[in-house]
UniProtKB/TrEMBL annotation:
GO terms for cellular component: membrane. The lineage of its organism: Eukaryota, Viridiplantae, Streptophyta, Embryophyta, Tracheophyta. It comes from Sphenostylis stenocarpa. This is Transmembrane protein. The chain crosses the membrane at residues 6-27, 80-103, 115-136, 206-226, 232-253, 265-290, 302-321. The keyword Cytoplasm does not apply. Keywords: Membrane, Transmembrane, Transmembrane helix. The keyword Iron-sulfur does not apply. It comes from the Eukaryota.
Amino acid sequence: MALETEWYDFVCFGIVGVAFLGALLMLGMNEGASQRDFETTYESLLLSRPDDEVVVDVLPRDHVSTSQLWTSCWRGLHPFWLLCTRFLSFVIMLLFLLWDVLLYDAKIFVYYTEWTFTLVIVYFALGTVASAYGCWKFFNKTHIHNGAKDEFLSRDVEETMPTNINAYQEKEAKGSIKLESRYIEEEFQQRAGFWGYLMQTTYQTCAGAAILTDVLFWGVIVPFLSISHLRLSPLMGCMHTLNAFFLLLDTALNNLPFPWFRVSYFVLWSCGYVIFQWVIHAFGFTWWPYPFLELDNKWAPIWYLCLAVIHVPCYGVYYLMVRGKNAILRRFFPRAFLRSN
């Protein structure tokens, strides 16, 4: 084992351990809510709604319906534009990541930046698939509904038929259209399921991680720390800018909620990275990608404590931006903007 430990290193282990267990506890209290609590049961990632139970009139707080994955918060904006935005974001970021890997080889993934950049790409990949499915679903349901309606409106009434038969057929057609419309509404308001919540949690995790990455890079590493393994370049500048830019662009268009308790996934993500660093150093990795993660430093507990605390404002900044979007835009554009929760 190449990782030598001092007494203060165990303080660092304790800080990460407390953050990890605290995040799991928060998720257990929210994602794994008891079925007796209706308001939290159906916002859970771990619980699924029975197929025979559909609630149309009452949607719980932070519920993620299928349509929210691919519709926009702007009324009248076709889902195709959100699909284009997500697909282009996915392609551009993937090209930058491939450029980075080809330039520095696979060892570049020892950096938190690459982890976060990859996670953002995963979110846009999931978002692209969801938006593509949503566009297909939107087109087909609209086509079927309008076709049934047009068929009813354009139906010729034969004069030779008795009046009561015509009235019965007209009533039956109206009832069929009404049932079809209700079915579409119920289907759109069903919860998203595992893949939908995976997309939702990935979105909230990479939102906090992107803010943390860019703040540490531009606010700490570039002005105060010198890393011999990487030098500031246009590629590195883009890697620490595009992640937040494309996420903010998607946030301005998407219709996803942003509950506070899912900061836990962000904390777990960072804890996983730190544990990964400990493991590879225990097996002989010789240098630390970030000086503030080094364990052979008596100031390490202070650094680790600061890193743990900074997760709250980094996630909080994005949380406030989403809240501001819902509050400000809804006030100035009441007829064009739809609240994201």
